[in-house]
Specification:
single chain; 520 residues; alpha+beta; six-stranded antiparallel sheet; PepSY-associated TM helix domain-containing protein; PepSY-ass_TM; transmembrane
């Protein structure tokens, strides 16, 4: 038993020396990320800064013409439409939207996997590149009162590490020269603003997401090993926390006291703080490090073999064969607000135009009906959604359908700066549950006539093991401020003290004369 204890203490000591500093960094950066997220251009920010759509009588080419022009410039759009749909709405399916880029309308065509091209809506000419003058014009349209200037043309920097931006590279980095120190990143492929950041965001991110996600390793030599580095570091941290809790309990005197008058045998303040903080905060440290590791889906533990929703069956018609008789210009004139973006939606065998306003409001109008009786509506009726949903998963039937008018623990919103908080989750939403072996749920958005996401039993387990354990996003608690903030900050301080005291103990251990002499 004494030999086993000895090896237990040694294992805890040396794993602590190896990873305690990184764990302390995770606690510190996690608190920063509660309030300042990694720079992103949210859908609502994008809409807010887009110019109102200004369409002449002769504009625009039809969606099919735009798709044809886009496929010539980006063949992936054609091949992607033949692949099975997976994951979020539109994955593997061509998508079209009409916006003003600078002072002209453009169709934006995407293959559903972040590959995108722009087509002039008036001429049908695909954009092959964007020059500096065009990028500056787009920046002035984004912020009319600014004085933009080009900082650099960059392939990638610390604020644009996402693989989702790869098809837009190189990027124009433009300073707006405003009081907030705003910088824009503009795609050289489509001319869109794809990212914005302020001086405050960039500064805090060096203590936040950049440290938390090891972003300095992105795009460099270590990029292909970055996920493994995080996973195995977190795995060692998990083992360290487990060993530490075990050691802490073994060393704590529950009956009586040691000669120093304490229940902890350690006389040195740092060692005693480490012991006590480990007993108090060891479990939360274990929880956060383990759930952080699970966020990367190590060894595909959250992979599911369950059925995927059939997006084509839900659409009922392909974009090529849809019948468009209502022009985009006429759709804009029928809207009940100034339109910033038109997106094409396919639902139940019919094409629709989704009209978006600057404040995020939306209306949807049938694109195959040019009669005056065809007016925009706010949402697709529940019965129509339910009828289309019955075709989503062949060979299985819907056992329950629920129109959610409030968030719950599986469908809920987060603040935009939070991880995945930029993804818009509107209410109401229709949840349909199937009788397949994986108990698949599908959320349907009546505002956009689209599939928002699917969630099977494995995904629901992941929701608790990662989302809940990592951020305590329990319904009724996450929005109860400042209780949620206070709880997470106090727990983070406890975990930080635990880890930083381990760093000090380890540093002193390594600097001991006996160790130094042995190393020499």
């Amino acid at each position: 038993m004494s030999v086993a204890k000895r090896w237990l203490y040694i294992a805890h000591r040396w794993t602590g020396i190896a990873v305690c500093l990184l764990m302390a960094v995770w606690f510190l950066s996690g608190v920063v990320m509660m309030y300042v997220g990694y720079p992103k251009l949210t859908p609502l920010e994008r809409l807010e800064h887009l110019p109102d759509l200004s369409l002449s009588e002769s504009c625009c080419i039809s969606p099919q013409q735009a798709l044809s022009a886009a496929r010539k410039a980006l063949p992936e759009i054609s091949s992607a439409s033949e692949k099975p749909a997976r994951g979020r709405v539109g994955d593997g399916l061509p998508a079209l939207s009409l916006v003003m880029i600078g002072n002209a309308p453009y169709w934006l065509a995407s293959d559903g996997r972040n590959r995108q091209t722009a087509v002039e809506a008036a001429t049908g000419k695909a954009m092959d590149h964007v020059d500096e003058a065009h990028a500056l014009m787009v920046a002035r349209a984004f912020a009319p009162e600014s004085q933009p200037s080009l900082m650099e043309v960059v392939r990638q920097d610390i604020f644009t590490v996402s693989r989702g931006l790869d098809h837009h590279r190189p990027l124009f980095r433009i300073a707006l020269n405003d009081t907030n120190g705003t910088e824009l990143y503009i795609s050289s492929r489509t001319g869109e603003v794809i990212r914005d950041s302020t001086r405050l965001e960039r500064g805090w991110n060096y203590l936040g997401a950049i440290l938390h996600f090891f972003y300095p390793l992105k795009g460099e030599f270590f990029d292909k090993w970055r996920s493994d580095i995080i996973i195995y570091t977190a795995l060692v941290g998990t083992v360290l926390a487990l060993l530490g809790m075990w050691v802490g309990v073994l060393r704590w005197r529950f009956k009586g006291r040691f000669a120093n008058g304490s229940r902890s045998p350690y006389r040195n303040n740092w060692t005693r703080w480490h012991h006590i903080s480990g007993l108090l905060f060891g479990l939360i440290t274990l929880t956060w490090v383990l759930s952080g590791m699970l966020s990367l889906n190590p060894w595909r533990v959250f992979e599911s073999g369950g059925p995927r929703p059939d997006h084509r069956a839900f659409a009922g018609v392909s974009l090529e064969h849809a019948r468009f008789t209502l022009s985009p210009g006429e759709a804009v004139r029928r809207a009940n607000f100034p339109v910033r973006e038109i997106s094409v939606r396919l639902f139940d065998g019919h094409p629709y135009y989704l009209l978006r306003a600057a404040d995020g409001r939306s209306e949807i109008v049938a694109a195959d009906d040019s009669s005056n009786a065809n007016r925009p509506i706010e949402m697709i009726p529940k019965d129509a959604l339910l009828a289309a949903a019955a075709r989503l998963i062949p060979d299985y039937t819907i056992i329950r359908a629920t129109l959610l008018t409030d968030y719950d623990n599986y469908y809920y919103g987060r603040q935009p700066h939070n991880l995945s908080g930029h993804i818009e989750r509107r209410l109401p939403v229709l949840r349909v549950e199937f009788d397949d072996p994986h108990h698949t749920w599908v959320h349907l958005d009546p505002h956009t006539a689209s599939i928002f996401n699917s969630l099977d039993s494995t995904g629901r387990v992941r929701r608790w093991l990662f989302n809940f354990l990592h951020s305590f996003d329990l319904r009724g608690f996450v929005n109860r401020r400042p209780l949620w903030d206070t709880t997470l900050i106090l727990l983070s301080i406890g975990g930080f003290v635990l880890c930083i005291s381990g760093v000090v103990i380890g540093w002193r251990r390594l600097r001991r004369p006996a160790f130094t002499k042995a190393a020499e």
